[in-house]
Amino acid sequence: MGKVDDIYNVLLEWKASGNGISASELSERVGLDRTNVSRYLNQLCNDKLVEKINGRPVLYRPAKKEMLKNKASSLDMIVGADRSLQVPIQQAKAAVLYPPRGLHTLILGETGVGKSMFAEVMYQFARETKMIAEDAPFIRFNCADYADNPQLVMAQIFGVKKGAYSGAESDRDGLLKKADQGIFFLDEVHRLSPQGQEMLFTFIDKGYFRPLGETGQLVYAEVQLIAATTEDPQSHLLKTFTRRIPMTITLPSLNERSLEERYFLIGKFIRSEAKRLEKDIYVQYNALISLLLYDCPNNIGQLKSDIQLACAKAFLRYKSENRSYILIDQAELHARVKRGILNLQERRTEINTLLTQTEDILVFSHQDKPVERKLCIEAEAAEKGAYFYDIIESKLEYLKKRGFTEPEIHELLNVDIESYFRKYISDLPEKFRKEEIAKVVDMKIVNAVEEVLAYAEEQLNREYDEKVYYGLALHLNKSIERIRAGTYIYHPQLDKIRKQSADEFLVAIKIAKMIDMKLDVEIPLDEIGYLTMFLASSVYQRENKHNQWVQVLVIMHGHATASSMAQVANHLLGEKHAHSLDMVLNMKVEKMYEQAKEKILEIHNGKGVLLLVDMGSLSNFADMLTEDTGIPVKCIDMVSTPVVIEACRKALAGCELSEVYRSCQELGLYRIQRHTAKKIEQELLIITACFTGEGAALHLKELIGQSLKSQEQIQIKAMDILDHNDFLCRIQELSKHHRIIAIVGTVNVPLEKIPSFSASDVLAGDGLDRIAQLVQKEQEYVKIKRSLKKMSLKKYVRGMDVEELFDEVREIIDELEKRLNLSLPGDVKIGMLLHIGFLVDKLVHQGKATVFVNVAEYKRQHTQEFKIAQQSFKELEERYQIKMTEDEIAYIVKMCLENDLGSDKQNAMLEMDHTV
Q: Which H or E element spans position 745?
């Protein structure tokens, strides 16, 4: 249970007058810092679990029941709730909610699919829905534990009378009695003897039983039975027993579940281990691929065990090698797991769709944070159990919050709806049982779907497979619920669908009329768009093959260097995407340039070209090629084979040229998080790097140290970069406790948000002066924060971490300066820092915004600047749950524009001052 849950439980237990409790009182009660308590309360308010009562002080109380009615249940939060487990979860809900005490249930599935976990979640759902009391028992018994002694099994379940058998020295209650008013879970029920099964169905029929050896007294109990088995119930259970269990739920194997679900399971298990170790766990990209694609023999249980083993090995290396981080790479994986990477070629499209734009190292936090990934919003919504319409609404709301205009939103949704529908269709199971659907979908809808698809097959002269039948039945069930509830249905791509699938659209109109008559509803036009997509589903089931990708061209010195690299990349990725030109050693540069130009004109298809070279004059080709051909060309030098593979992987994933270029530059760096452990006394750090960490790195360290000897609080650390992943992880760990000012290396190591310098910059250029300027800037900022602390600014900025807030605001000001192409004086930036800091405080505490005269006109004059400023503040608004008005944005834009040292006005003033 996390800290947020602790806060919520204290609120529930609070017996005050009902007027609520302040953050300060809660802080004292739970023993947590008030700043963190305020943050958790805001999160609970966001989730509609807690309501805020405005006043002085602000009070909080649990939300009323009607506000909680839409909260997702435990069953809805299971990975795969809207996909492979959609039908089992609907069945489980029906079994629990059936009056008066639910339906007895049999769970079927292979070893390791999660039958025990599913039974426990059914128990949690029963408590959440008040079908059983909060303290109702959940009793678990594995029938295989005493399978060789049937008499002992029955004694465990039903209890025993003294003297019933040798060794029964006293009366003993059985587990069935202990489960009274709750749920009794019988695992591996096929190991229960026929006599035991007969005693159980007698209890089901009559509600009472006799303990073993008892001849007179009856024991009554109200218990819901949940049984589980890996075997065919028709072969291993008595028919008289199975007939008395009305609900049968079949759980899919891991191979039957989508790759996306497996990704979420992996994240869940690794986060669990991270919490156990109280350390973040880093996972190398290829190791994650192996976990996703290996043949897992015993389903989810085996997957969990293999992940625990990998975490244990990584933890051992962390301890034995005195590392500051825990990293899982291929070396930590079991041999069978490592073989998963061999399946990449045939499943590359799925992987690229799932892990689009994901970096080479992922971090799984131990602090109740989600997996750090860059999946589409549809995948995130799917993890939460959202349905088809809910995902569209979530995306719509997401785009609105981020300031996109209506045309932009429409364009983005037009793209996303097709990709989601394609994924929706592909993730549906290949086979299903009609009787299983009938348990969760109205039989009238099931029959209607059969009829309308038969009509569509006749009209369109095609056959629809089980996926379409299954998907349309579930979809239509949800659609009709919304129509009858008066909930609006929106299709963002209706016009395109109508033109693109004209024949299917006409048939969908007729089908809609058939559904209207059969189910007494009126199908809206937008819903006809969805019906059309199901009728045209063969289009969406085909792979989206196209060649509109960024092209990759490798040019290297040597007889076959470039062609060998390209061949390796193409073979591993299963696509001939890397092109190559070999520059033999006696070839003139001019001739190589002409060949490169011809090749780029040949392969270019509209998305640009990434040039990968080794050294020398080849590094200068990009700008010249762009000028001569008009084709966007970017260049990466000092390239290795992994860089070629990375470039092709990103290109084949559909990334833009700038994204492919950036990814190859960083080659595995996950983003240095801006909110990680920033403290006022955070030590400033400069890193020098070379392959060994002992040669050039030490020399550079000494040189920079002599140059900065008058500066205070500067640490310089020499590091090796022999192992790229290791280097990146150490940078990440160092950034938690230091502010890294710069990295100086013999090899280019460009990292986001950290300035980098080459050894030649320092030894022969102006590198030392530029580093000194960076140091001076950072030290001035530290002095400002110290001054703010001495001013007791915390008295004015209430309920927040002042240092953290001002660090965040500082980065926003730097971002504004860069994006608006400004040069702001230091005192102006300090003024803006204070202004925005106090503004956030005012908005958090519901203060009134300052009015900006003629704000609409000012916004019209500076539309682009307004848009950039609004986008820059989005993350801050979400973090502190505030909304900056246009008046406040106008003041900030005005501060920036009127204090730009680069403007003609400011330059003129400076010249005048200089003359005077």
A: strand 738-745
Number of H helices, E strands in the chain: 41, 23
At 753, is the pLDDT very low, low, confident or very high (cuts 50, 70, 90)?
low
Contacts of residue 819, Cβ cutoff 8 Å, sequence gap at least 6? 868, 872
Encode pLDDT of 277-288 as tens digits. Answer: 888 888 888 889
Q: What integer pLDDT is reported at residue 907 of this predicted model?
A: 46
**Cβ neighbours of residue 642 closer than 8 Å, sequence gap 6 or more:** 667
What whole-number distance in Å separates Cα of residue 173 and Cα of residue 157?
9
Q: What radius of gyration, in Å, describes the C-alpha atoms of the chain?
A: 32
Tallying the residues shown for the chain, one arrives at 916
**Long-range contact set of residues 1-10: C-beta below 8 Å, sequence gap at least 24:** 2/368, 3/30, 3/32, 3/36, 3/40, 3/368, 4/40, 4/43, 4/44, 4/368, 6/30, 7/32, 7/37, 7/40, 7/41, 7/44, 8/44, 8/49, 8/50, 8/62
| 776, 742 Cβ separation under 8 angstroms | no
Amino acid occupying residue 734 = L
| Closest C-alpha among 734, 667, 578 to residue 284 | 667
DSSP string computed for 880-903:
HT----HHHHHHHHHHHHHT-TTS
Pick from 609, 669, 661, 604: which is nearest to 636 by CA? 661
Write out pLDDT tens, residues 484-502. 877 777 777 777 788 878 8
Residue 453, pLDDT > 80, answer yes
**Contact between residue 754 and residue 800 where contact means Cβ atoms under 8 Å apart:** no
Q: Is the pLDDT of residue 457 over 80?
A: yes
571-594: b (≥16 Cβ within 10 Å) or e: ebbebebbbbbbbeeeeeeeebbe
**DSSP structure string for 532-570:** HHHHTHHHHHS------S-EEEEEEESSSHHHHHHHHHH
Residue type, 865: E
Q: Is the peptide bond before 88 cis (omega within 30 degrees of 0)?
A: no
What DSSP state is assigned to residue 6?
H
What is the spatial distance between Cα 701 and Cα 786, in angstroms, rounded to a whole number? 28
* Sign of torsion over alpha carbons 153, 156, 157, 160: positive
Q: In Å, what is the CA distance from 396 to each residue of 130, 356, 357, 489, 825?
A: 34, 21, 22, 13, 40
What the block records as the tokens of 879 is 């973090």
Instruction: Read off φ and ψ for residue 130, nearest 5 degrees.
Output: 65, 20
Kindly give the pairing relationship between strand 714-720 and strand 683-690.
Answer: parallel
> What is the rounded average pLDDT of the residues 545-556?
78
CB-side neighbour CA atoms (13 Å) of 181: 7
Flag whether pLDDT at 382 surpasses 60.
Answer: no
* Predicted pLDDT of residue 370: 43
Nearest-5° Cα angle at 379, 378 to 384:
95
The strand ranges marked E within 9-65 are 21-22, 50-53, 59-62
Taking alpha carbons only, the member of 524, 520, 598 closest to residue 555 is 598
Answer for the pair 227, 189: CB distance below 8 angstroms, yes or no. Answer: yes
CA distance 306 to 316: 15
Nearest to 125 by CA among 170, 66, 184, 76: 76
Q: Where are the beta strands (DSSP E) in 277-343?
A: 281-284, 326-328
Which of 476, 459, 460 is closest to 518 using CA atoms?
476
Judged by DSSP in three states, 297 sits in coil
Q: Which secondary structure element, helix H or strand E, spans residue 159, and what is its range? A: strand 159-160
pLDDT tens by residue, 292-310 = 999 998 899 899 999 999 9
